[in-house]
Amino acid sequence: MGRVPSGRVPVVVMGLGQLGQGIARAALASEEVELVGAVDAGLAGTSLEEAYGLQSRLRVADTLRGAKAPGAVVLHTGAARLEAVLEEILEALRQGHPVVSSCEELSFPFLRHPEAAERLERAAVRAGVSVVGTGVNPGFVLDRLAALLGQTVGAVRHLHASRSVDAGTRPEAFQRQVGAGLTEAAFADLAEKDSVGHVGLVESAALCALGLGLDCDDFEEELFPLLAEEDYPSSAVRVARGQVAGVHQTAVGLEDGQERVRLELTLALGATGLDRLVLEAEGRLTLEVPGGIPCDATAHLVVHAAPRLTAASPGLLTVLDLPAGR
Fold first, then answer.
1. What would the DSSP string read from start to end of 177-202?
2. CB 3.0-4.6 Å disulfide test: which of 14, 62, 245, 324 passes with 39?
3. What are 213-257's pLDDT values in tens digits?
4. Does residue 125 contact residue 94 with C-beta atoms inside 8 Å?
5. What is the DSSP string of 294-322?
């Protein structure tokens, strides 16, 4: 590993798909971190400049050990499901690397993956490092931002937060993940297999409850397709009228059967971008972000977490454990 300027935290980007490329760009532009390694087996031996035109001659390694960056924070990208990336995150921890991952289920794994969470906690503590999952959602808009707003009021009785994203502005993989171009029947088949829609909304609801001091003992999630009212021939996925244009999902947190948290997420071609949070306390507090916080903010959130992670206590953390400001 090359010499890191004083005060800057060394980081390695692991996985150079579209998100990984965005993280690499954000890391190169950051004054807080120094990009000292990149890992992607499919690009091993090429430089970031050759592969993506980035202002870096750093050569991509095929493994984390091959990156030769001991102790650097791993900025990890990969699947949304924790099971798919658990072993590579554990291996990074065993090698002594703190890890910031975009894996959606890692944002709050205690809810649906308690055994995996315990393995991550043990590995991180043993190595004396920390691991956290973050992103724009889960990790910020529908959970951490709500918790931050909750600090400005008294006891919160209820949160209703919604996020709407025009899937037509997102890449093909995103559009296919939300079901664009499917028939209703095909969508239903994939929904039965948990193979369509956004991953992490229930995790966001659990983070909300924790951050707002709400004692939710049960969480429920629903999703259904939104059908196109017109043709979308120019989108990354061609969608005809009547086909699925996207998805609407809800996650609800309950306390003794009473709703305390309601999150709604619309990801569809032609949807109007908007983030809206409404907290019911002594009065009502409403925050709206017209256009919505960009999905590309995930790259900056991952990079921003790296220096904070090095100052945190060892173990498995959530974004609520990290300081909110710079």
1. HTTTT--HHHHHHHHHTT-SS-S-HH
2. 14
3. 999 999 999 999 999 999 999 889 999 999 999 999 999 999 999
4. no
5. -TTHHHHHHHHHHHHHHTSPSEE--GGGS
The confidence score (pLDDT) of residue 4 equals 42
Total number of residues shown for the chain: 326
Peptide bond into 70 cis (omega under 30): no
- Report yes or no on whether pTM surpasses 0.85: yes
pLDDT band at 2 (very low <50, low <70, confident <90, very high): very low
Per-residue pLDDT tens digits for 288-320: 999 999 988 999 999 999 999 999 999 999 999
Q: Which helix (H) or strand (E) holds 56?
A: none
* Dist CA 25 CA 265 (whole Å): 28
The answer to whether 299 and 22 have CB atoms below 8 angstroms apart is: yes
Q: Name all domains of the chain by residue range, CATH numbers in brackets.
A: 9-135+297-321 (3.40.50.720), 144-290 (3.30.360)
Give residue 1's pLDDT. 36
Q: How far is CA 134 from CA 10, 31, 176, 203, 232, in A?
A: 19, 20, 22, 11, 32
Q: What is the mean pLDDT of residues 61-74?
A: 96
Residue 248 backbone phi and psi in degrees, to 5: -120, 130
